[in-house]
From TrEMBL:
It comes from Azobacteroides pseudotrichonymphae genomovar. CFP2. It comes from the Bacteria. Pfam families: HGTP_anticodon, tRNA-synt_2b. One of its GO terms (cellular component) is cytoplasm. The keyword Protein biosynthesis applies. ATP binds at residues 250-252, 260-265, 332-333, 376-379. Catalyzes the attachment of glycine to tRNA(Gly). Keywords: Aminoacyl-tRNA synthetase, ATP-binding, Cytoplasm, Ligase, Nucleotide-binding, Protein biosynthesis. The lineage of its organism: Bacteria, Pseudomonadati, Bacteroidota, Bacteroidia, Bacteroidales. One of its GO terms (molecular function) is ATP binding. GO terms for biological process: diadenosine tetraphosphate biosynthetic process; glycyl-tRNA aminoacylation. This is Glycine--tRNA ligase. The gene is glyQS. Gene3D superfamilies: 3.30.40.230, Anticodon-binding domain (3.40.50.800), Bira Bifunctional Protein, Domain 2 (3.30.930.10). Its main location: cytoplasm. Residues 198-411 form the Aminoacyl-transfer RNA synthetases class-II family profile domain.
Amino acid sequence: MAYWEDIFKKLVSHCKEYGFVFPSSEIYDGLGAVYDYGQNGVELKNNIKQYWWDSMTLLNENVVGIDAAIFMHPTIWKASGHVDAFNDLLIDNKDSKRRYRVDLLIEEQIAKYDNKISKEIERAAKCFGDAFDKQKFCKTNPFVLENIGKKEALCTRFAQASSKNNLEELHQIITDYGIVCPISGTNNWTNVRRFNLMFSTKIGSTADAKMEIYLRPETAQGIFANFLNVQKSGRMKIPFGIAQIGKAFRNEIVTRQFIFRMREFEQMEMQFFVRPGEEFQWFERWKQIRMKWHKALGLGNHKYRFHDHNRLAHYANAATDIEFEMPFGFKEVEGIHSRTDFDLNNHEKYSGKKIRFFDPNINKSYVPYVIETSIGLDRIFLSILAGSYCKEILKGKDSRVVLKLPPALAPVKLAILPLVRKDGFPEKAREIMDQLKVSFRCQYDEKDSIGKRYRRQDAIGTPYCATIDQNTLDHDQLTIRSRDTMEQEHISIDWLQKVIADKVNIKSLLKQIMK
């Protein structure tokens, strides 16, 4: 088993053992690619949502929020292009009987060229030291040039075939580049086929009156459909944004990597409406704002990168992903797209309603252009867990598994631990718990030795533990232990709330963004 597979397997096991994520319907042997969030998972998830929501609506005076319905008029999905174009291109391996998305197979081949180039550059850098000229090396090294050429040729061919929906050419690309099934190791492929990803259902009280509708595959269309409502009721002026957090549903055939790709998932999206012609400057601005949001989590700046799209969606004129280094490689956690005026124009066409903004600065009405920022909440949840999970070897051959979660996002902010279950220690601990639980989430724990209790709190990412001992009863002082350093210090009860509150508040992350 590869090292990353072993780490990922342990992380998945950790999520279940400590109440973060459970397989859905597990007592009935589960349901594929569907998961439930446990008691600690839902707290972490809610904290992530609050961090995103506050960063959008508090830090940006011109961004407001809505909560649109999941059920929407079916013509919305015709206007958005989802009925006709929301397809995955799939291919089956006849030997392994496994099904794959064509774009992912080809993108993995492109990534192989990137890895070969990176490894060659790393070897040369180590060999030449300070004298290494990366730019010159990339322009002259035959191995690097060869792989750059192969990558560019593949990207061009892939983009052309995709834009023309040429299924035969996509199959030929897979054949020509020797792309094989990871399970069987063969290239015994079927033809490429389309598969629409939307779930459909019926709405209505009688059989004759039923209308076919769809579970929304994205939350963005609810924002576009409410553009005029928000703009007029809020007296919003261009540029402005509308944010939303909500569930979306896609009938993914190829599901993998735990909660990274699921059929039921949650999105955090913001559509930012701008004057036509200004979309690219806003696109670049939101790229930097969103990257800063991610890096403020403190998981390591080197774990993030931009990945510009070679193949654009039908509605976009620019697109990039923010990728995070998961245990299984760099993967998308957020997309930033310049959606042009495609959506509003189409909704105007299909609805027969004017969807325009009168701009008094230029004395003109127009259909705004849109910059979209879209996060998969489940993916960012997984990236935060993956970036926080570690096993540390301590003194005396002891070890611990710890989640070094950003304190503001941790499910439990403070564990209150009476040293022993007698002599008035539990009563004092409960008294302190009652004082603090209205300010942030605390957890009381009196079972097992203090060392085992520390380990349990480390495993769920609790940033601080407060131990109630004799010193607490005699001098109103308790021992605060830091999760990351394991160092302990004595502070007065009066200072406890002030010390902890500053470090575990969402505001601490927002201040990082504002620097």
